[in-house]
TrEMBL record:
<feature type="domain" description="DUF402">
    <location>
        <begin position="18"/>
        <end position="156"/>
    </location>
</feature>
<dbReference type="InterPro" id="IPR016882">
    <property type="entry name" value="SA1684"/>
</dbReference>
<feature type="binding site">
    <location>
        <position position="105"/>
    </location>
    <ligand>
        <name>Mg(2+) 2</name>
    </ligand>
</feature>
<keyword id="KW-0460">Magnesium</keyword>
<comment type="similarity">
    <text>Belongs to the Ntdp family.</text>
</comment>
<feature type="binding site">
    <location>
        <position position="87"/>
    </location>
    <ligand>
        <name>Mg(2+) 1</name>
    </ligand>
</feature>
<protein>
    <recommendedName>
        <fullName>Nucleoside triphosphate/diphosphate phosphatase</fullName>
        <ecNumber>3.6.1.15</ecNumber>
        <ecNumber>3.6.1.6</ecNumber>
    </recommendedName>
</protein>
<keyword id="KW-0378">Hydrolase</keyword>
<feature type="binding site">
    <location>
        <position position="107"/>
    </location>
    <ligand>
        <name>Mg(2+) 1</name>
    </ligand>
</feature>
<dbReference type="InterPro" id="IPR035930">
    <property type="entry name" value="FomD-like_sf"/>
</dbReference>
<keyword id="KW-0479">Metal-binding</keyword>
<dbReference type="InterPro" id="IPR007295">
    <property type="entry name" value="DUF402"/>
</dbReference>
<feature type="active site" description="Proton donor">
    <location>
        <position position="23"/>
    </location>
</feature>
<comment type="function">
    <text>Has nucleoside phosphatase activity towards nucleoside triphosphates and nucleoside diphosphates.</text>
</comment>
<dbReference type="InterPro" id="IPR050212">
    <property type="entry name" value="Ntdp-like"/>
</dbReference>
<dbReference type="Pfam" id="PF04167">
    <property type="entry name" value="DUF402"/>
</dbReference>
<feature type="binding site">
    <location>
        <position position="123"/>
    </location>
    <ligand>
        <name>Mg(2+) 2</name>
    </ligand>
</feature>
């Protein structure tokens, strides 16, 4: 698997279990790229839905993808604090200048005070039947949801107090480098 370079602009592709594209984010700047972790950032990037509709993100975001965890984390930087949107998903692969993963419907919304809501359980149950999610996938996703909830409670990974400061500084550094060119 290729590894994206820091400062590089890549796309993010979300798929569904049946192989269909779900959503594409046009531009995400890589802040860290290793075999196991990609941390990226974007601000007001174009997003294209599977039906062709488009929209633009409203605020800067730091994005965390892991090659061994079945979730990815979007940290949305808003005036009243950091909100997190977590996709329960396959681990990422980096292919053809894009971060790619399978979205498994379940989402977790985390508020600045670290309270959270588990979202879309009905959508998960519906897609599990329609797309035939194997029982092993269900077990993996449930176990990773438990891991994610422990990360939130322990303020681990992207939920750690200094995570946002470190990566927003890095994002500003790369944006300034690009604007000087």
């Amino acid at each position: 698997m290729d590894i994206p370079k820091e400062g590089e602009i890549v796309q993010v592709h979300s798929y569904k279990h049946d192989g269909h594209i779900h959503r594409v984010w046009q531009e995400t700047m890589v802040l860290k790229g290793t075999r196991n972790i990609i941390i990226g950032a974007n601000d007001r990037t174009l997003v294209t839905e599977s039906d062709g509709r488009t929209w633009i993100t409203r605020e800067p975001s730091i994005c965390y993808f892991h090659a061994e965890r079945w979730f990815n984390i979007i940290c949305m930087l808003r005036e009243d604090g950091v909100y997190y949107y977590v996709n329960i998903s396959s681990p990422f692969v980096f292919d053809n200048n894009a971060i790619k993963y399978i979205d498994y419907d379940l989402d977790v919304k985390v508020f600045p005070d670290m309270s959270y809501l588990i979202l879309d359980e009905d959508e998960y149950a519906d897609h599990k039947k329609k797309m035939g999610y194997p029982e092993v996938i269900d077990k993996i996703l449930r176990r990773n949801l438990e891991t994610l909830l422990s990360w939130i409670k322990q303020r681990k990974g992207p939920f750690a107090p200094d995570f946002i400061d470190v990566w927003t500084s890095r994002y500003e550094f790369y944006k300034n480098m690009k604007s000087e060119k």
